[in-house]
Amino acid sequence: MVTCPGCGLVTGESAGPVPSERHASPGCWELYETVLARSYGLTGYRPVHQIVVDAYIAQHPLSSTRRQIAAVALCLMTLCLFVEKNADPRDGAALHKRMVAGRPDFHALPPPPAPGLVTVADVAAARDAEEHRRLVWAWGRAVWAAWEPEHETIRRWNAEALGT
Question: At 58, is the secondary structure helix, strand, or coil?
Fold first, then answer.
């Protein structure tokens, strides 16, 4: 058994690769790829796709490079908007584009000690699109809650980038 260093999910052995910019186990990454495939390929799963991406990245943060720091920052910024402001996840890509337009200087945030009680495994177990959407929203809320000590910084980044 292997424990994911990002979310704590315990999976069986897996020989699959994990991208260097993710702090994940091969088994966890494999489940994420499965969920992503559904999200891209099945219409009913697509509306919450951005929450899938944001929750996974925020739950598996690395901050070794500027790109990694920015990815985590952007994902936390949109999770904030989805959870707190009821923003539409289908607007995620456009929000990210606006967030980086002013070339913000994000800094690394210390990852939460407990990354959230919901993981990609919970979402992967969804039996249909409705359950998928419900579980993805629960995952997004759990990940956002785990980052509570950094909420004020993330809200400030949103205000600076979007005027919210």
Answer: helix
Short-list 132, 107, 109, CA closest to 122: 132
Q: Nearest-CA neighbor of 144 among 93, 94, 72?
A: 72
The reply to whether the predicted model has a pTM over 0.85 is yes
Per-residue pLDDT of the chain (164 residues; tens, 9 = 90+): 899 999 999 998 877 777 777 889 999 999 999 999 999 999 999 999 999 999 999 999 988 899 999 999 999 999 999 999 999 999 999 999 999 999 998 999 999 988 778 999 999 999 999 999 999 999 999 999 999 999 999 999 999 999 86
Task: Give the type of residue at 106.
Answer: F
Q: Which two tokens stand for residue 109?
A: 């945030």
Q: Specify whether the CB–CB gap between 135 and 58 falls below 8 A.
A: no
